């Protein structure tokens, strides 16, 4: 059995093992050293957030049974993509592929804040009134589908090896749960880690109710893109314990905490000035 065959045969087990392992680790960390006091019943939020995750997983498996790995194999068999055309050392190809796919995730994240129609979907993620490990996997089904299609297009253009796609998927899921964790890191350690990865304190700013704070720190894995493109913000104005999480005027538990409300949320209300860079924060805007 070749290495690629091993990866193909065990891809689901590898991803699920890392997913549940990281989830358990971060959830335990939240119990031992929480960063903030939660404002909504954990049982209510967790049952509905996790319920949405399982619903999404079921639907995605029905629509895209082979998922990203299947598209990677298809692109390789047809010679599609940069790295299927130009042969480079495997290690270099894997590293460049993972970094490139992470950059696409950053651009996609900016896009779902910039386009009002996409923000309608993405606000399901931001409307969570608290911030913990389950927030990292809470996305509307339609946004997940769009994300997968963007990933397919990236694979077709890039032509990454199978191992690179699996590594990226594992890192993306694990880092999303880590940097959405309600966990406390020593400030000195957090400052050093931010040079290499997105930390919970860095990404939590992105979940502020304040527009200018929500429209920064878009990275999920690597922190470099925010610094490079001027979307980095070090700390929230009110501090991590004092900042408000969520979206202004979206506080009804039936709408933001229950699964049926989350599924309907993109089709309710109007998008006014919340999309990216629609207004600057100043003292008169403070709520």
Write the layout of secondary structure elements.
Layout: H1 3-32, H2 42-63, H3 67-77, H4 82-85, H5 90-114, H6 116-126, H7 141-158, H8 162-179, H9 187-193, H10 200-204, H11 211-214, H12 224-228, H13 253-256, H14 259-264
Outline of the structure:
The chain is mainly alpha-helical. It has helices at 3-32, 42-63, 67-77, 82-85, 90-114, 116-126, 141-158, 162-179, 187-193, 200-204, 211-214, 224-228, 253-256, 259-264.
Task: Describe it.
It is a single chain. This protein has 287 residues and is mainly alpha-helical. The chain has one domain. It is 59% helix and 0% strand. The chain is built from 14 helices and no strands. Helix 1 runs parallel beside helix 8, helix 3 runs parallel beside helix 7 and helix 5 packs across helix 8. The chain starts with a helix and ends in a 23-residue tail after the last helix.
């Amino acid at each position: 059995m070749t290495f690629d065959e091993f990866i193909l045969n065990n891809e689901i087990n590898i991803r699920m093992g890392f997913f549940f392992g990281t989830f358990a680790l971060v959830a335990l960390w939240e119990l031992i050293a929480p960063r903030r006091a939660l404002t909504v019943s954990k049982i209510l939020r967790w049952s509905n957030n996790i319920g949405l995750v399982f619903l999404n997983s079921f639907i995605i498996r029905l629509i895209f049974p082979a998922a990203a790995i299947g598209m990677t194999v298809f692109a390789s068999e047809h010679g599609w993509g940069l790295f299927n055309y130009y042969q480079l050392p495997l290690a270099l190809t894997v590293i460049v592929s993972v970094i490139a796919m992470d950059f696409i995730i950053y651009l996609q994240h900016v896009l779902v804040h910039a386009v009002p129609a996409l923000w309608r979907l993405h606000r399901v993620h931001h409307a969570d009134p608290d911030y913990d490990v389950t927030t990292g996997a809470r996305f509307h089904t339609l946004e997940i589908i769009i994300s997968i299609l963007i990933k397919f297009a990236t694979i077709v253009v890039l032509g990454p090896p199978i191992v690179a796609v699996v590594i990226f998927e594992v890192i993306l899921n694990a880092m999303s749960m880590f940097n959405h964790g309600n966990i406390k890191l020593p400030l000195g350690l957090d400052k050093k880690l931010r040079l290499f990865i997105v930390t919970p304190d860095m990404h939590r700013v992105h979940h502020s109710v304040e527009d200018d704070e929500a429209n920064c720190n878009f990275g999920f894995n690597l922190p470099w893109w925010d610094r490079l493109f001027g979307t980095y913000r070090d700390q929230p104005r009110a501090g991590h314990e004092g900042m408000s999480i969520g979206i202004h005027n979206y506080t009804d538990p039936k709408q933001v905490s229950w699964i049926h409300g989350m599924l309907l949320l993109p089709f309710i209300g109007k998008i006014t000035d919340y999309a990216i860079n629609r207004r600057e924060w100043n003292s008169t805007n403070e709520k």
